[in-house]
Amino acid sequence: MNLTKLTITEARRALDAKEYSAVELTDTYLKNIAARDGEIHAYLEVWEKEAREEAKKADGMIARGEQKPLTGIPVANKDNILVEGRIASSASKMLEQYRATYDATVITKLKEQGAVILGRTNMDEFAMGSSTETSAFGNTKNPRDLSRVPGGSSGGPAAAVAADMALVALGSDTGGSIRQPAALTGIVGMKPTYGAVSRFGLMALASSLDQIGPFAKTVDDARALFEAIRGHDKMDSTSLPDSARAVKTPKKLGIPRAFLEKGTEPDVLAAFETTLALLKEKGYEIVDIELPTVPHSLAVYYIIQPAEASTNLARYDGIRYGLSVPADSIQEVYTKTRGAGFGREVRRRILIGSFVLSSGYADAYYRKARALRDTIRAEFTDAFQKVDAVVMPTTPSPAFKFGEKSYPLSMYAEDVFATPANIAGLPAMSVPMGEVERDGTSLPTGFQIIAPHLGENTLFTIGSDVESTL
What we know:
The chain is an alpha/beta fold.
């Protein structure tokens, strides 16, 4: 079987036709992981024994005629999504030996489908980062150029799919952490509407921003994984009712040009304009729009996200679970455990979050950011009265080299086009849009589509049209 060209549709047909078994398909991926992951380091742990057992169960479902869309399909899992009985460390020393006591809702849904979970993949520690360089367990490398980052925080699952070490994967997106690595590794990445996929069993970073979503090589595969994990969950108070937005065929795309022209590298912008021209040939109308407050999304994000993170990560205190460093007093246990367990970027964001929430500064920073968030949401709502979707590059540049963005603000700037969708709670997708050259290497770029609330079908329609232009 050709893993490079394999899709869920083809795998489903071949499995159902008994051309090969789920065990054989799983073994092929496990062999590819063994051959390639030594240099890429997409996985923190490969669950070979468990994966083969799940594949045997999938073959049993197929033999009984009980197969579902993802039965026997090999999936990689980000290390912050819980799988009962297995380590979930969020790529942190703080949880290096923590074993999950229950399944995340998305994992329950995959198990019900008969999917095969290959292992847990690397990420930025507690999902704080844009390059997977903050992982406590080493860098993941970009399969397209091993000297460059795969993006983050979901760099591990993105690299696993891009390197044919999983057919599809689950990631989490707080400020672009699915779409940005998808763009940098040349695959499809999707952030659903906030609440469309349950967050139960996802380690919380910023609760009002986090969302689980799919990585895949094609838009159709992303749709298949999304359909399997979506739906209301009584265990998640932010979960939306089971309802789909009925949308007309999208034909009008809005371009916030004033936003895009600041900081986007010229060849990335040129690739974007080429893709727009090809979409215009397909009958799309391209409309320039104004989103005057949206450029402030990055600043809003880096106030709200650290604030929520500092609160969510307070639970890691060395007392209840996870790492515990012995000391003479409980206060020393707290400080020594958190100092030893958290990496530099996590400590930095906890400090920022504590500052913006502190007495005397909450009004100046946090509450103003919350107010501006409402304005950004309103601007998108107004825009969607005029256009069917807003489109832009996923990132301002292609994959950068390790250490190139060591100054924190330069790293944060990589999220400039990704954060607006999280701030507004909107569905968004990155689809490959061609390549640019750096140091003699062709590197992928991403075309980002942002749709109205519950407008996932719009993403899939436009995404498929972008895909057909390549």
